[in-house]
Design a protein that fits this description.
The protein is of the alpha/beta class. It is 48% helix and 12% strand. It has a 7-stranded mixed β-sheet with strand order 5-4-3-6-7-9-8, sandwiched between helices. A two-stranded antiparallel ribbon has the order 1-2. Helix 14 links the parallel strand 4 and strand 5. The radius of gyration is 22 Å and the shape is globular.
């Protein structure tokens, strides 16, 4: 979400357990193997079957949206339930709900027990509110009617300079979310959950021992900054975001035990970025914007930095042969919904250079993200 939409001291938690960071090689090898097996399966079955799976993707999106909206996975946390009981708890028709759940079971989300009841499985656990790696908020957000209608605009967007969302609704997705509480809550929940998963990996991957003070630009409630400060006790931090977001950030930073090490600064990264840090983190912000806006953000960061200061950009990694559909699909979502794009290292290097940075090192993260480094020149 765009940027424009003194914490009290606390004692850091004692004996705080360091979050587990899965090995990058293991995760990415598993993703490559999964991709290879899917391609191998596609090669030996009649071609129309896997293609039908793909063009029925809208059905899968709607089924997942409905399950997330009704919080079916939450209702199944304590054990299997039949469709009738789930329907009673959620206020929907039992027959329709059972048919919907059978559809989800066919794509391996939820499990149907031998007695006919339904239970959670590995994939549906990602829809449990508040669970590790949960994406319930995004599953509901991307199935909302205004978002689905934006996807339908791809044929027109191929010929025009509009996003699909702007074209069909007459305004941008950020304006819609500013007015729609449910959409905004779902988006923030999804983004926060995904950030919670990757933040420990960012903290472990980058050599933060080489810097002293970190400014998290557009850092939300400080999920990444908290992870970095907890792993690197020598650091102090600045959290830079809108005043409204900072009001939610203070309790989060206190819970993480780092509030006494963080300065909260409100503002817009389209106007300026606070000086005083020797490293600036911009996590999955640039991909929300087209190149001119992304370049403006980078130039504002450079204006706040001295030569030699670090720019640290964790973002999605565009590669010639994607190991997951996440990155190419997110790139199309940028085209149709929020107006941004995913960028390859070559494109990121061009933007860095134009903004006044030397393109530095890169650190892969588990999954589909990478940390790009820029050095102010």
């Amino acid at each position: 979400m765009p940027d424009d939409l003194q914490s009290r001291s606390v004692t850091p938690p004692k004996n705080q357990k360091r979050p587990f960071v899965p090995p990058v090689f293991l995760v990415n090898t598993a993703l490559r193997l999964r991709r290879l097996l899917l391609r191998a399966a596609d090669a030996v079955v009649p071609a129309y079957l896997p293609v039908m799976d793909r063009f029925m993707g809208a059905a899968t999106t709607s089924l997942l949206h409905s399950a997330a909206e009704l919080r079916i996975a939450d209702h199944l946390v304590d054990g299997p339930l039949g469709a009738a009981e789930l329907a009673k708890r959620t206020g929907v028709d039992a027959d329709v709900l059972e048919r919907k759940l059978l559809g989800l079971c066919s794509v391996n989300v939820f499990r149907r027990e031998p007695d006919g009841r339904f239970s959670n499985n590995h994939l549906s656990s990602s829809l449990i509110t508040g669970s590790p790696e949960n994406i319930r908020g995004f599953a509901e957000f991307f199935g909302m009617d205004p978002v689905l209608r934006a996807w339908s605009q791809l044929p027109a967007v191929l010929r025009e300079e509009h996003t699909g969302f702007d074209r069909v609704h007459g305004r941008g997705v950020w304006d819609w979310m500013a007015e729609d509480d449910r959409a905004r809550a779902n988006f923030v929940e999804g983004m926060s959950s995904m950030t919670e998963v990757v933040a420990p990996a960012i903290a472990a991957a980058y050599p933060f021992g080489e810097v002293k003070k970190v400014c998290d630009v557009g850092g939300g409630v400080g999920i990444v900054l908290s992870a970095v400060l907890n792993r690197h006790p020598h650091l102090s931090g600045v959290l830079f975001d809108s005043e409204a977001m900072l009001g939610e950030a203070a309790p989060h930073l206190a819970r993480k035990g780092v509030a006494h090490r963080v300065e909260l600064v409100g503002g817009s990264f389209f106007e300026s970025v606070p000086r005083g840090a020797d490293a600036y983190v911009i996590k999955t912000v640039l991909h929300n914007w087209k190149d001119p806006e992304a370049l403006r953000i980078l130039k504002n960061c450079r204006a706040a930095m001295d030569p030699g200061h670090r720019l640290i950009v964790p973002d999605f990694h565009v590669t010639p042969d994607a190991i997951t559909t996440l990155v190419p699909f997110m790139d199309i979502a940028g085209l149709l919904i929020y107006g941004g794009r995913e960028r390859s290292p070559e494109v990121m290097e061009r933007l860095f250079t134009e903004a006044g940075f030397r393109f530095g090192r890169m650190w892969p993260l588990p999954g589909a993200q990478i940390v790009f480094e820029g050095i102010a020149v």
